[in-house]
Every structure is written in C-alpha cells, then in structure tokens.
Amino acid sequence: MTKLFATRLALAATMFALVTPAIAAQQDDGAPPPSKPGKPINAGEVLSGELNAMKVRDVKNAGKRVAMYQITSEPRRLPAPNGLCNLETGPETFQLVTSSDAQAAQLKSFVGKAISVKVDEVACASDPGQMSEAVITKWSLIKKQ
C-alpha cells in the first residue's frame, strides 16, 4: 500500500512540476499590448485587401444560394455614427454589396487576389446573417495598372 501511495505521489509531483511553468508562462507580461484603433476610412477613400467569396442563402430570394464577396483588410475606423462597430480596433472584414450582375461578374475574376475599391458608402453590419463586420453598399473597383 505504501508503494502505491509513493507512486501516486511521485506522479502528482511530476505533473505539478510540468504544469506550473506552463501556467506561469501564460501569466507573464508577454501579452500583446492593447490594439490601437485602425485609421479612418471615409467616403471617396480606397480600401485594399484580399477578396474572398462565400456562398450564402439569400433570404429575399427563397433561400437561393448567392455569392457574397468580402474584403479582408487592416482594421479601419468608420465615420460617425458607426465608429468602431463595437470592436476594439474597428472592422477588418468588409462585405461588398453588388448592385448588378455586372459587378458580381467583375469581382468573380478577382477572388483570392488583392484588390482595391473606392468606398462611396460604408456602415457597420447590422442584419442577421451578414458575414462581415462592415458593409460597403456603394463602391467602384480601382483598376490596377
């Protein structure tokens, strides 16, 4: 019985010795400093980032699957009253709302690539089912030279 107790005690001591440094390392001051809010983006400015496409169900169109396009960028601060969209640094994902089949076709060829768009109208995401933190409702693609 003493041998069993000694074995369990040794196992517990070993586990404690291994776990304690890991816990201490998590509590170190190695945590990243608080993030600063992103630079502002206003109407008429350019937003650049990687274009992603997702298939989502369109609530207005009887659940038909449609492509939704999104730019992933550095954090940006939106103009008032939207501000930071209830985020610490501002939104990093921006949904591009397409107003025509021509705009959708234009974006389709750039999926997975870096693009730039001139932002004319932007707001924080507010509707359920939106996959981005902010929504750009009016925009134009900037042609790369």
What key attributes describe this structure?
single chain, 145 residues, five-stranded mixed β-barrel, two-stranded parallel sheet, 7 strands, extended
- The portion of residues assigned to helices is 10-25%
Helical segment count: 2
Query: How would a crystallographer describe the biggest sheet?
Result: 5 strands, mixed, barrel
Structural category is alpha/beta
C-alpha Rg (nearest Å): 24 Å
Number of strands: 7
pLDDT < 50 stretches: none
Q: Please list the strands of the largest sheet in the order they lie side by side.
A: 2-3-5-7-6
Strand content: 25-35%
Distance between the termini: 81 Å
> What is the string of SSEs from the N terminus onward?
HEEEEEHEE
| Averaged pLDDT | 78
Outline type: extended
Question: What do these coordinates show?
Answer:
The chain is α/β, with parallel strands linked by helices and 145 residues long. The chain has helices at 2-26, 101-108; strands at 39-40, 46-58, 64-72, 76-77, 93-96, 114-124, 134-141. The chain is 23% helix and 34% strand. The chain starts with a helix and ends with a strand. The strands form 2 sheets. Strands 2-3-5-7-6 form a 5-stranded mixed β-barrel. It is extended and about 80 Å long. A hairpin with a 5-residue loop joins strand 2 (46-58) and strand 3. It contains 2 helices and 7 strands; from the N terminus they run H-E-E-E-E-E-H-E-E.
List the helices and strands and how they pair.
Layout: H1 2-26, E1 39-40, E2 46-58, E3 64-72, E4 76-77, E5 93-96, H2 101-108, E6 114-124, E7 134-141
Parallel strand pairs: 1-4, 5-7
Antiparallel strand pairs: 2-3, 2-6, 3-5, 6-7
